[in-house]
Write a structure and sequence with these properties.
Layout lengths: L3 H6 L1 H9 L5 H41 L4 H32 L20 E6 L12 H8 L2 E2 H7 L6 E2 L2 H19 L3 E3 L4 E2 L1 H7 L18 E2 L4 H6 L5 E3 L5 E10 L18 E11 L4 H18 L4 E5 L11 E9 L4 E10 L3 H6 L2 E4 L2 E4 L1 E9 H11 L18
Helix pairs in contact: 3-4, 7-12
The chain binds one RNA strand through helix 3 and helix 4.
Length: 414
RNA sequence: CGGGAGAUGUCAGAGUGGUCGAAUGUGCCGGUUUUGAAAACCGGUGAGGGUCACACCUCCGGGAGUUCGAAUCUCCCUCUCCCGGCCA
């Protein structure tokens, strides 16, 4: 959640930043008014409560002293009656404020490039040259057919479209990748976690998926549980409503989980192959950092993900997202896009974001600095998306006959 | 799923209607003492809101209720532990 006090006190600056993320001024003015109304309603209510408390204490003294309490009781009752509507007003004001505030995206960093959509993202650098093929490289679904790696039809039979089954060598490759990613992350200091694949609504709100993006999530019927869309949710929320010691920062975590997304609004996009599935595997990095240090942690995470791609011999580029392409919770995001020779284009394989204190406010993750409790910064990033790495290996390591080499670093895992 | 017990501050654990945001111990921070450390002693130490700072308001698992007044009484829910059943 955004800092409402900051919005209140620096409205022009704050609204300019949010407008770049597509929020219009009237919404922000409304938010500002709702915040002011809530403060006013609370002030009135609290004054009334204070009065009530004072009289109640007197009441006790009167009774012990054997004094007549009739007059006092009348006063107390009258005040109580006056308090009821104030209470209701404050409750309504709070509800109104949070319904708007929780739907407000994060402030983008000042360094985020201008732009409306992914075409305006800025390429920072390319790593590794795409190799030239002496034949026309095939797309991964063609290669899958030759090698019998992915069973699309039976995946659909078991579930529905956008589900698939990995078979034989492909399935072993997936397992090898997960282990390789986890081991590499561990070497960089990320502690491995194995977490629940379902989280409750409070956690989803903590990281920003709820309440606004409920339609993208799979909900368990009859329970307050959702299938996680990314391990960012459970890993970040491990510290939900906790206060960390400053010396324990940064907390570096990694974990493998399947991810479940409805992909609502993606109809017609990437319908062939396993680029966009309702269920996919991912190894995630999450960091909880001191606000002064989150920038360095962010760079370290980008480098780690990029190094993994390099170790796999996969050409990629590092891209900084522009305002328009930035996600809801992110203040700044760098995507890693891997080269797919079959598709003849770069495709996202990792997305690393610094949410600053946005998720920390929602999830109440703080640290103790001296006597004060301050919000931490939270960061997350894929290292890496497993399914898309399989696609990248298939397309980059293919031979003319359609057979696929296994990258050297993975051989000991297979 | 059935039976029983419970949920309080970092943790442990008192508190059964007012003077309780909450004893005591422990942990942590600071100090005294010490060549240094330990021990001992002294002081500080929950969270959120509000304020320039106070005042003040809220929070004893969550929600509703009784009462002038609830950690304490009533109801519902959730969770934890023990016993039994079932089971990877």
């Amino acid at each position: 959640m955004i800092d409402l006090k900051y919005l209140q006190n620096n409205f022009d600056e704050a609204s300019a930043r949010l407008q770049k993320k597509g929020v219009d001024v009237s919404t922000l003015e409304n938010l500002q008014n709702l915040f002011a109304s809530l403060k006013e309603a609370n002030a009135t209510l609290e004054a009334s409560k204070a009065e009530q408390n004072t009289m109640s204490k007197l009441f006790g003294q009167y009774k012990r002293g054997g004094k007549d309490i009739a007059a006092l009781k009348a006063k107390v009752d009258a005040n109580k009656e006056r308090m009821a509507p104030l209470q209701e007003k404050a409750r309504v004001a709070e509800e109104a404020l949070y319904s708007v505030a929780l739907a407000m995206p994060n402030f983008p960093d000042d360094t985020v490039p201008e732009g409306a959509d992914e075409d305006d993202n800025v390429e920072l650098r390319k790593v590794l040259e795409p190799k030239t093929f002496s034949f026309k490289p095939k797309e991964h679904w063609e290669l899958s057919e030759i090698n019998g790696w992915i069973d699309f039809e039976r995946g659909v039979k078991l579930a529905k479209s956008r589900f698939s089954v990995l078979r034989g060598e492909a399935s072993r490759l997936e397992r090898a990748l997960i282990n390789f990613f986890l081991d590499t992350n561990a070497q960089k200091g990320f502690i491995e976690h194995s977490v629940p694949f379902m989280n409750n609504s409070a956690m989803l709100q903590g990281t920003g998926q709820l309440p606004k993006f409920e339609d993208d999530l799979y909900k368990i019927e009859g329970e307050d549980l959702y299938l996680i869309p990314t391990a960012e949710v459970p890993l970040t929320n491990l510290y939900n409503d906790e206060i960390l010691a400053e010396k324990d920062l940064p907390v570096l975590m990694t974990g493998y989980t399947p991810c479940f997304r409805k992909e609502a609004g993606s109809a017609g996009r990437d319908t062939r192959g396993i680029i966009r599935q309702h269920q996919f595997n991912k190894v995630e990095m999450v960091a909880i950092a001191h606000p002064d240090k989150s920038g360095e942690v962010f760079e370290m995470m980008v480098k780690n993900a990029s190094d993994i791609l390099t170790a796999l011999g996969l050409p990629h580029r590092v891209v900084e997202l522009c305002y328009g392409d930035l996600g809801f919770s992110a203040a700044t995001t760098i995507d890693l896009e891997v080269w797919l020779p079959g598709q003849n284009q770069y495709r996202e394989i990792s997305s690393i974001s610094n949410t600053r204190d946005f998720q920390a406010r929602r999830a109440k993750i703080r640290f103790k600095e001296g006597k004060k409790n301050k919000f931490v910064h939270t960061l997350n990033g894929s290292a890496l998306a497993v399914g898309r790495t399989i696609v990248a290996i298939m397309e980059n390591y293919q031979n003319e006959d359609g057979s696929i080499e296994i990258p050297e670093v993975l051989k000991k895992y297979m």
